[in-house]
Amino acid sequence: MSILEAVLTSIREHWLAAGLLVPIIYIVSVAFYRLYLHPLANVPGPKLAAATWLYEIYFWKKFVIEIGRLHDIYGPIVRITPNEVHVNDPALIDAVYPGGGKKVDKDPYQVRMFGIPDTAFLTIDHETHRIRRGALNRYFSKAAVNKIEPYIREAAEKLCSCIASYAGSDTVTISVAFSSFTTDVITEYLFAKSYHMIDRPHFLPNLQAGNDSLGELLPILKQLPFLHTVMRWIPQERMLKMNPGMASWIRVEQDCHQQVKDAHARLAKPDRVYYTVIDELLHADLPPEEKRDDRLFLEAVVLINAATETTSWNLSLATFYLLHQPHTLATLRQELLTASGDSLELPSLTTLENLPYLQATVAETLRHAYGVVQRLIRVHQDPVHLRSTVKIPNRDGSEKVQVKEVSYVIPKGYSLSMTSLWIHKNPDLFPDPDKFAPERWLDAEGMKRKDLDRYLMSFSKGTRQCLGINLAYAELYICIAAVVLRLGDQLELFETDRSDVEFDHDVFAMRPKPETKGIRVTVR
Ligand code: HEM
């Protein structure tokens, strides 16, 4: 009997043991490779995280907190999954998120939770992203945003009047109101057609409930992306029964389909008047496959999604902290009253953008809101050299620490990430980081400090930085100013405290405690 026959006979006789042994040998070999032979094997971090993604899954929506703990133990450069190195050193922001010239992809592992890789936001490949983003840049430039200033002002004034109309009666969930405001602004901006959600009683229905429930699904979809296909099979009526909050999103999708059709109809006309984002994309210098209807439709849906809860969360947070800290509100109100003079007019966007305390309040709000709280992963197409320093406590227990230089070359094709939360909470940059203190952004002359801006990660950095940054800033400046001027002496927090706004878990965006009822106010 040959050796092979002997092995086969033995397997046949002990098939159960062999069946178990094969996967065990496989798992042990893979773990051994990842721990000792892998190109990232020299990067410090827990062995379990280097061996398996189950480490991340175990911490689930709180992995971001665990990442902070790992940095406390292992220093500023840590291997947090088999293929990913996380960096927590503000000096390395540009290395992880470089600007033009460097080729950097997004990580399929992160992007797959959204299930729509055909949009600029979720494009993985650097080159395809460059083409898609290039077609949108002009539409979102500062000059383009300035044209919509009158509408943002009108919407902000209307929002304040609607909130004021609840004086002496019901509480207002201000976070819901802001979500309606940002939806009205982005739909006017994209389609020259506001959805008028501000006008609805209690600002409902709007997109927030659907967004919230979809957000909670994202961690599951990240690990089980095939569920996207399963979800697409679910008939719409059933989906609505399971999740009534999705009704508003279904209407958004219907509208986006219609917007694509309307833009095609305009394209066929000889005078070629165009004014929506779909017209812009149809006229852009893009290859025909990039102008497919299904892609244009998705691009519009994603733009609406990207623009609503992000900005409204910042507006909610600003309102919370201003009402929570009357001295901060009073300082800002005084600055705005001086700027508006006797006219009671809301100052122009250019004036607002130059008011130091308002600038500082916006920056401090962005710092506390974190933008996207989940680490944002990039995959570089060239090796990246990371140099940093680790503080090592002295063995004699004295307060002195030794500083050791560390240096790693991350080969091309491996994932690199940073987390806004940990940069924004860095006590060397932002002393007493949990405190809401616009003053930290002002210099001795009371002017806005520019040096700290490079550490504000809210909109990310580099080639994949937020496309809507100009629009977001315009909304923040105008809406915060309107709320402070029109309602600053009328609003009071209702059963809302810091636990309603502080980080509890990560669903890509940050979420406060699950039982929160939102940020609620009463109106005098
Ligand atoms: C305060 C409000 C906002 C914050 C904090 C914010 C934050 C961010 C962040 C962190 C990213 C990078 C995400 C990643 O790397 O995966 C991003 C990308 C993006 N944001 Fe925003 N955003 C805001 C408002 C807006 C608005 C108003 C729009 C308008 C359409 C918008 C559209 C986009 C798009 C299209 C991208 C993808 C950019 C690309 O990959 O080229 N965002 N945003």
From TrEMBL:
One MF term from GO for this chain? iron ion binding
Which cofactors does this gene product need?
heme
Coiled-coil regions listed: none
UniProt keywords, alphabetically: Heme, Iron, Membrane, Metal-binding, Monooxygenase, Oxidoreductase, Transmembrane, Transmembrane helix
Which InterPro entries does this one have? Cyt_P450, Cyt_P450_CS, Cyt_P450_E_grp-I, Cyt_P450_sf, Cytochrome_P450_monoxygenase
Tell me its family. Belongs to the cytochrome P450 family.
Q: What is this protein called?
A: Cytochrome P450
